[in-house]
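Predict the assembly for these three chains.
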Amino acid sequence: MDAAVLSLVPATVPARVASSAQDAITPPLRNSFRLERSWRDTVPFDGVVASRWRMPAPCDTAFERAGWGEGYTLAVHLSSTRMLFQHEREIVWSGFVAPGTMLVTQPGERATVRFHAPCDVLHVFLPMRQVRRLISGARGADAPQPIALGGSGLMRDAAIERLALLLADVQDGAVAFHRDYACAIREAIVARLLALQDDAGEARDTRAEVRRASLPDWRLRRALAYVDTHLAEPIGLRDLAASAGVTRMHFAAQFRLAMGLAPHEYLMRCRIERAKSLLLNADRAILDIALACGFRTHAHFGAVFKRMVGASPTGWRAQRLERGEAIS
DNA sequence: ACGGTCGATCGCGTTCATAT
DNA sequence: ATATGAACGCGATCGACCGT
């Protein structure tokens, strides 16, 4: 959805008015996604499933929003960042955030954030009535409601992350029937969150909740800086551990505690992030991009890319170029 | 020439015991 | 509490091959 269309619907108009106004201006199928002009400025009136907040450079501003009263807000970080995040003035997270990390803001809960690094966040709006309906369907009509979704801290889940990436693709309207598509993905996300909650009750360890950092921040900072600087070169666990000043075994364990994912997995995500931006240059060969992102063969690059993105590098590039996202 | 797939090899991540 | 090191299973990696 382009900025001109977005500007026609102020974020502050009442829900019902906004819905009908937007329907009158644009075809109904273009309503499910918004780009945020300020952090979480979207009023998720009927039809808006998700919105996205991108900040290319860090700024010193703290953003504060009262939570959406009619539902939950799921924030999925599409890129790595560094932030201080609070719910009702209580610190939820302070420090580095890996791509794929997520957190849920409960209905009406006040959220405050200060980003210390560029960020790219997808906000998915989960209406309370939808959550209620799914709970009643799965646990019976007399199941206790309402519930707190997603716990109180940062968490990771591969399935939700993949669903969120699919939802991000709806942004430009490239997916046919994309409003139904977006609603179906949202429903799947809610179901998955509820399933995770059930799992957490039976076996707490199965839930991938990100815990507070136990690797000291200065060590983590040095390791992440090393990744950023040497991304195009071979980086081993030993290199990262050495940059942080600990042994590789200790580093692997502590890094996982701090970031919620293994060092190698983090490295691959960073490489694929960079590869995606390079792929938008249609003239650049796949092998060239693979080498520029630290892969030593196109075979390895293709395999990792397909595993993480769900498409081959050329397939993904073709999709993006079709949508006019090429850069020169 | 470029890009995708497959199989063998190797290194990573995890666990556990131990030291400081 | 924090850090190190050994052992081991398995997934990541890379070279070879094939298709376009």
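Strands of chain A lie at 33-35, 50-55, 62-65, 71-77, 81-87, 90-97, 101-105, 111-115, 119-127, 155-156. Residues 1-29, 202-213 of chain A have pLDDT under 50 and may be disordered.
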